[in-house]
Structures are given as C-alpha cells and as structure tokens.
Amino acid sequence: MPDFRIEHITRYTYPAPVRDSANQIILYPIKDIFQEVTRQELTITGDPVIDTFIDYYGNEVGTFTHSEPHTSLTISSRLWVTTHHRQLPGNDIFPGQQWEALKHLAHMVPYIDFLKPEYFEGVDELLAIVQAEKSKDDTPYQVALRFCRYVYDNFKYIKGVTTVETTMDEIWKLKAGVCQDFAHILTLMLRLVNIPARYVSGYICTHRNTNMRGEGATHAWAEAYIPDYGWLGIDPTNNCVANETHVRLAVGRNFLDCSPVRGVYKGSSDHVLEVAVSVGYEDEVHSSHSVQEETKTPEFKPVDDRPKNSYQVYMEMLQQQQQQQ
Fold first, then answer.
1. Is the distance from CB of 199 to CB of 254 less than 8 angstroms?
2. CATH number, domain 3-83+258-322
3. Where is this region: Disordered (predicted)?
C-alpha cells in the first residue's frame, strides 16, 4: 500500500501580455478502491474559479478562464495518493466461455468506443500478426499479456522520433516511439481480437531503487477488459501489469480524450511552455532518486519557442503533456 507524492507543474510564458486564457484540465486522479487521493493542492495563476464536471468516460474535468492580461500562466498540481495492489485475473473459466462473453459486449454502450479499431494502411499486416500471436487455447488475459510483450519486444523506446501528429502508419513503419505510441499500438491490437481496450494517462511511481521507462513525466498505458474481472492495466512500455505503481489520471479512446492540459488564449502565438513532474514516496526523507526529485524544484523542460500558429500551439501543448521522458 504505497503512499506517493506527485507534483505536476505546467508553465506558460509570453513575450507580451495575453488575455482570455480558457483552459481545460484533467489533473484529478481517478478515485476508486485501488486508488485513494488523500490530498490535492491545485494552484493556478490569478486564482480563477475552476468549474468541474464528469465527462463521458468518467473522468473529472476542470475548466477555468484567466481573463486579465498576463505574461505567464502556471498550473500546479500537488497530489498525495495511496494505491492498493489489485489481484490479477484467474484462469478458472474456460477460454471459449470468456471469448463468448466478449462477443456480447460489441453492442453494449460502455464498450462500443473501446472496440473500434483505428484504420491505418498497415492494419492487415497487424491483423496477421495478432492472429499469429493468439493461440486458440489462450484466455483474453493471456492474449493481452502476449500482445504487451510483442509491443515491448518489437518497438524501440526512442524519445523525440514521434509527436502527437505522428500517424499510426508512421508509428508502424518506424517501429519506435514513446509510451503514448506503445499504448496506441497495444489498444489497437486488443481491439482487433474483440477485447475492449482503452488508453490511460497518469504517472508511473516506481519501486524504490527501480528505474522504469516513463518516470519523471506523465505516462500512458492501456487497459483491457477481461470477463468476470474488469479493466486490467497493461504497460507495454515496461512490459508489466499496471498495478500499485501506476497512478491513473484519465481513461479514453486515445490520448486526445485524456490530455492533462489544453486551452486557447488571445495574444501572440509566440510563447514558451515548460512542464515538470516529480514523484516521491511519502515516507522517504533521504537519498533515493524519486525523493531527490520531490524535494527540489522540479526540472522544467522547455518547448521550442519559435513563433507558432494556434494549431501548432495546441498540438505542441498536447505533445508536451503526453510525450514521455
């Protein structure tokens, strides 16, 4: 039952005053029996009123407007989260019964969006691979783990080779990317064999002295729906089940449904965007890498500050929030 402290700071600076900054934030972690938010401190420049609502996928979403002229905007979220281990699915149901149960979900509203595979030119090639990887005696759980391993083994984790504008075809040809790309490929593979799959954004909080890909930034993974069990988190970036070390922020069809911060403003498109994420254990006070990050000012990572049009501003904002370290 680990207790984590997480700090997620987004900062915009502008060369001249801007105004009417309207934003949407998904920075409120999912709350259920496996994840307790014991405390959250959310501070925003100008102290605007934040209106919240629950979206179609069950995520808590906040909206706010900073109307006054300003040359910087900082959104700071500090979290204290307790996670609980979730037992893994059993294999006590015959595979045929489980696959038959999945067939009945095809026309059920909660699952329809998570069963629609994204079309791309290489889909036939990928379909042949998933059919080869899937054994007739496998349960959906076993298939999900095998697909996770396939992505981990066959796609290289390389920062900077993809952006949020990179298409599925380009990812498939590159066979490389970061966690959001790995999550998109895995969700597509699962959907091709009629397993509902959804995209998850959040944070990875590693065990003490254990390094994992994606720490130190927002992270992304997939969830597969397993009959008589529910949603199972699977992290293809690290080839593991997403359990008590993964803190969930939001779920959706893809990263666009889960972006932590997005918005628009009036003023010059020239700006600098910086983001910092740090994670530490609540009971640590010395020495570990996670705590060092937690107890110092988080390292901000600037985005290219060349002039951009509003579409570029929007897309790069999403990229910075979802592309991982």
1. yes
2. 2.60.40.2250
3. 284-307
